[in-house]
Amino acid sequence: MVSSTVNVVRYSALFGGIAYGFFHRRSLQADHDLHKLEHAVHERQRLVAEAKEAWKRKKEAALDTTLVTDPEDPRFDLEKLIAKWEKSS
Length: 89
Description:
The protein is mainly α. The chain has helices at 4-63, 78-88. The longest helix is centred in the middle third of the chain and has 60 residues, at 4-63. The model has no long low-confidence stretch (mean pLDDT 90).
């Protein structure tokens, strides 16, 4: 038979370990949630910057009116048209 003192020590250690595990997991989860939030914000900023750059390229392409796309026009230049397509894609 085990003495009551040993049982008290066992259960105290058990409950102490459970409490430690609970609080440790809470702190780890809080750090993980913060990291996840920072990653989401950073990803959103990257996407916004990428969209702004695409919008800027689209506006620049729209302003380029010197390019003639009609093959019947005497000013038509196939090399310039292909270069514009390569630049836009």
